[in-house]
Amino acid sequence: METTEQAVWDQRYSGPDLVWGAGPNRFVTEEAAARLAAERGVSVDWVQADLLDYQPAPGSCALVLIAYIHLPAASLARVFRAAAAAVAPGGTLLVIGHDRDNITRGHGGPQDPDRLYTPAAVTAELDGLAVRRAEQVMRPVRTPEGERTAIDTLVRAERPA
User: Fold this and answer.
1) Where are the domains of the chain?
2) What is the enclosing helix (H) or strand (E) of 36?
3) Which of 6, 20, 119, 161 has a 20 to 30 Å separation from 12 between CA atoms?
4) Angle at 100 between CA 58 and CA 9, to 5 degrees
5) CA angle, corner 58, sides to 32 and 156, nearest 5?
């Protein structure tokens, strides 16, 4: 049974127009795409599940990506912990999402600070992972009024081999 929140998001993304464009997020590309292409033969297991219920097997994933998932802070912390636990030895967790400072200094994104990221809030939930990058990053956004800048949080962490 679909919840009201699911219905809202399904309606938003069900139309023929792409809400955010077709290209990959530039930070995901910088952090992961070149490595995956070089290694080739990477398999992807696609799972459609409720993020708050889904528990991937511990240490089962070479790459875990969280991209622009904006839930209330307590729920988001649970998602970060589950994602971190799923990273295999030698694997990577990549997290990208709208930063809390985006409300006052950036463009677009959710306007509820409880649903936004900070590097410290993300890294606080990554037990057992070595944080390699945790910072605010600027992302250009094309709008009808011209180019604007969004502020995102980007975290890359690895589980030691």
Assistant:
1) 44-158
2) helix 34-39
3) 119
4) 65
5) 30
114-144 pLDDT tens trace: 999 999 999 999 999 999 999 999 999 888 8
Note whether 98 and 116 are within 8 A (CB): yes
Q: Is the pLDDT assigned to residue 19 strictly greater than 60?
A: no
Contacts of 90 (CB under 8 A, 6+ apart): 62, 158, 159, 160, 161
Residue whose token pair is 């006052």: 104
Specify whether the CB–CB gap between 103 and 120 falls below 8 A: no
In the CATH scheme, what architecture does the domain 44-158 have? 3-Layer(aba) Sandwich (3.40)
* DSSP secondary structure string for all residues of 73-131: HHHHHHHHHHHHHHEEEEEEEEEEEEBTTHHHHS-SS---GGG-B-HHHHHTT-TT-EE
